[in-house]
Amino acid sequence: MVDGIPDLDEVLAEALRRLGRINILVAGKTGVGKSTLINAVFQGELATTGVGRPVTLHTRYITKEGVPLGIYDTRGLEAASFRETIGELEKLIQDRRAQQNADDHIHVGWVCLVEDSRRVEPAESELVHMLTRREVPVIAVITKAKSDEGFRDAVTDLLSDVKNVVRVRALATVFDDGHRLESMGLDDLIELTDQVVPEGQRNALSAAQRVSLKQKQRRSHAAVATAVTAAASVGLTPIPFADAAAIVPIQVTMLASVSAIWGLPVNRAFLGTLVGGAMAGTGGTAAGRATVTGLLKLIPGAGQVVGGMVSAATAGVLTTAFGEAYIATLSVVARDPQRVPTPDEVREEFMAQLRRRKRLTGQRQDQ
Ligand SMILES: Nc1nc2c(ncn2[C@@H]2O[C@H](COP(=O)(O)OP(=O)(O)OP(=O)(O)O)[C@@H](O)[C@H]2O)c(=O)[nH]1
Ligand SMILES: [Mg+2]
C-alpha cells in the first residue's frame, strides 16, 4: 500500500478471497445424468476432466483450478446397501460442518431423479430426510425431462422436505422423427440454488455457473451497491477532486469483484489492461496522481467535478455509473459462456459504454 492506494495484486487477492467457494452434493442413481448436468451447468468440463479425490467409499470430491466450486459426486444409491451410503454422507456433512471456514461446508444438495423412471424410491426419500435433518437445503432435480405427465407434482408430494423441484434437460434430445427438444431448466436450477445457499456462497455460484446471465447481473449489481456505499462514505467529508484518488481503489476493487462474479480471470494482465497504470503502485508520485485523475476522467459525470469538490452523493453517482457501465460491458462481451473475452475486447467495449454514458450525462447538463 502506497499513500492510501493499495497495490493491484492486493486488490485482486482480496476479490478472489471474498468470492469464496460453493460446495454442492450431487446424488442420484447411476446413469440419471449427474455428470452431464454438472458439465452443462458449470465451467470447465468439471465432471469428466476433474478426476476427483475419493472422500468416502461412494463419494468423490471434484474441483478445478480457478473455478470456486466443489462437487461431491455420490454413487451407490442404487445398491441394496444404500443406507450405508447415506450414513457415510451424513458423517461427511457433519465433518465438513465442523470446519471453521464456511467455504468448506456443504451448501446444497441436488438429488437427481430421472423422469423416465417415474418413481421415487426409499433411497431418495431417506437421503432427502437426512440432508434436511442436517440442514442442507435440497433441490430435487428431474433429469432428462421430456414429458412431465404429473411426475413433478408427484415428486413434490413424495419429497415434501425439498425446497423445490425442477425439471431439466442438460442435453438437447432428438427423436427418431427428427423432432428436437433443446436443453432447458438449467437457468432455473441456478436461480433456485441461489435462493437456498448462504449469501456468502452466491458470488462463487455465479462465477462457476455458465447458464444464467440473470444471476451474474444480479450479483454484480449487489457488488456495485457495496462499492457505492464505500465510495459515499469516503465522500462524506467532501474532498477536493485532486484527492479523489481515495475513491479509485474502491472503483478498482469493484471491477475486480464484478469480474470475479462473471468467472473472468482475476489477474494483473486482465485488470491491468482495464485500468491502465492507475493501480500499478505509483500512487504517491506525481505520475500516480496523473493516472488516477486519468481514470477518474473516464467516469461518466466526473468531468464536471474536476477541480471542484467530490461530495458523498457525487462519489456514489460516479461509482454507480462506472459499475453499471462495466456490467453492461460484460453483458455484451461475456454473453457466450463458451468463450472467455480477451482483455482488449473488454477494454474496448468498456470504453464505448463509458463514452455512451458520458454523452448522456453531457446531454442532461445541456438541457
Ligand atoms: N438426451 C439426453 N441424454 C442425457 C441427458 N443427461 C444425460 N444424458 C445421457 O445419459 C447417460 C448417463 O449420463 P451421466 O451423466 O453419465 O450419468 P451419471 O448420473 O453421471 O452416471 P454415473 O456417473 O454412472 O452415476 C449419458 O449417455 C448421457 O449422455 C439429457 O438431458 N438428455
Ligand atoms: Mg457420473
What attributes does this structure have?
Rossmann fold, 2 domains, two-stranded antiparallel ribbon, binds magnesium ion, 50% helix, alpha/beta, binds guanosine-5'-triphosphate, 367 residues
What does the model show?
With 367 residues, this protein is of the alpha/beta class. The protein has two domains: 19-208, Rossmann fold (3-Layer(aba) Sandwich), CATH 3.40.50.300; 212-366, no CATH class. It is built from 14 helices and eleven strands. The chain has helices spanning 8-19, 34-41, 46-49, 82-97, 122-133, 151-158, 186-196, 199-208, 213-234, 248-261, 268-275, 286-298, 312-333, 343-366; strands spanning 22-28, 53-56, 59-64, 67-74, 108-114, 138-143, 164-167, 173-174, 180-181, 239-240, 309-310. A hairpin with a 2-residue loop joins strand 3 (59-64) and strand 4. Guanosine-5'-triphosphate (GTP) is lined by residues 28, 30-36, 75, 143-144, 169-171, 173.
Tally of DSSP β-strands: 11
Radius of gyration: 24 Å
User: In total, how many domains does the architecture comprise?
Assistant: 2
Could you name the CATH class of the largest domain? Alpha Beta
Q: What is bound: which ligands?
A: guanosine-5'-triphosphate, magnesium ion
| Helix-strand topology string | HEHHEEEHEHEHEEEHHHEHHHEHH
CATH topology of the largest domain: Rossmann fold
Counting helices, strands and paired strands, the structural category is alpha/beta
- Characterize the biggest β-sheet: 7 strands, mixed
Oligomer category: single chain
How large a portion of the residues is in β-strands, by DSSP E?
Answer: 5-15%
Overall outline: elongated
CATH homologous superfamily annotation of the largest domain: P-loop containing nucleotide triphosphate hydrolases
Helix content: 40-55%
CATH architectural type of the largest domain:
3-Layer(aba) Sandwich
Report mean pLDDT, rounded to a whole number.
85
The largest sheet has its strands arranged as 2-3-4-1-5-6-7
> So how many helices?
14
